[in-house]
Amino acid sequence: MRSAVLDSCASSLLSAAAVRERSRNIADAVIAGQSRHFRVDRARLDEAASLVARVTRERYPDLAIPYHSRWRHFEAGGVDRRALLPDDPHAHVDLTVVSVLLDAGAGPGWSYFEEATGKRFTRSEGLGVASFRAFADGAFSAGADPFRVDAERLADIDEATLGALFEVRDDNPLVGLGGRAALLRRLGEALDGARPSGLYGRLTAQSRSVSVTAILRELLDMLGPIWLTGSTLDGIALGDAWQHPHASGDGPTRGWVPFHKLSQWMTYSMLEPFEWAGVTLTDRDALTGLPEYRNGGLLLDTGVIAWRNPADAAAAWDVGSELVVEWRALTVSLVDELAPRVRALLGKPDLPLACILEGGTWAAGRALAAEKRNGNPPFAVNSDGTVF
């Protein structure tokens, strides 16, 4: 039988605080010279912060910076697609969950043509617009109301159905189409007849003030059973958590470092739907920087993180390899160090981390990737799309 102690230990990894603590342990070891893979040059942080601040001012000259969120992709092409939705937090939350789950890398050969605007979109913006239009057309609804996601409908979505929604053809291939469809089916099964937006009702039933960490935990509980890959500890689903010798910790969780990237990205994307509904959010900065290609690429491309063996950049690495885990942990910790520098340069000491990411680190990382590698990541990671 599984012990209550083990349950408690595994549960302790299902938080943003654990992401930050374990990532810091790894970063401290790398900074102390104990890594075979990377070095850290903190002197480059000021240069990286200057770039982020410049990109932020270019994108948001008035410094009215929104959250880093899936809702930015729904605004692609300058279109206010939110105006097409009912003023209903359950619809907003349903859309956020299903769209973020579909937001893996699209690949360089795919695009989406939006008939309503006559515009064509690629990459994350294309995936966002395509999933928005599918939602608005009732593709995820089992009833007459199109603006909802129903478990029984998700459970029936196959690769061909999703391919048609995303305009996939031989000349318009979408990377990981089968994996995306499988994720939706698994979510449908895990929901057991409920809607994803049930979490909104649970969190607001007793109070109109909700902790962002509570949103993340609800999502981790909901999403835990659906991952196609990821880690387990004696049968307990940890999801986006991996092992590294410098992660530290006690008992059964020693050596484990969680990241929960997709769940944190989904949580960031929940902030606006909750606030639009009049809910006060607390602990917004409890979440971490997202350990993915753009934030991590920014740090590599500005030299804050440097390769010990430059040939490693040309190899493809498994998502759970020590090198990838270390790079992601460094990304979490060094974005934390970057953030106060960016706030100082912008003269915005209270700017939430979610706005720094949007302004920001993600956009600057994307710009550097376009300049240096035609938009491609800094190195190849073998992943099914549920991590990155």
What key attributes describe this structure?
mainly alpha, two-stranded antiparallel sheet, 15 helices, globular
List the helices and strands and how they pair.
Blueprint: H1 4-11, H2 16-31, E1 38-40, H3 45-59, H4 70-73, H5 89-101, E2 111-114, E3 119-122, H6 123-136, H7 151-154, H8 159-165, H9 177-191, H10 198-204, E4 209-211, H11 212-223, E5 231-233, E6 236-239, E7 241-243, E8 256-258, H12 261-276, E9 280-282, H13 293-301, E10 305-307, E11 316-318, H14 322-346, H15 353-373, E12 380-382
Parallel strand pairs: 4-9, 11-12
Antiparallel strand pairs: 1-10, 2-3, 5-6, 7-8
Main sheet makeup:
2 strands, antiparallel
Overall SS class: mainly alpha
Helix content: 40-55%
- Sheet-strand content, in percent, reads 5-15%
Q: Overall mean pLDDT score?
A: 94
Task: Put the structure in a nutshell.
With 388 residues, this protein is mainly alpha-helical.
Could you please describe the fold and organization of this structure?
This protein has 388 residues and is mainly alpha-helical. Helices cover 48% and strands 10% of the residues. The chain has one domain. The protein is built from 15 helices and 12 strands. α3 crosses α14 (322-346) and α5 crosses α6. The mean pLDDT is 94.
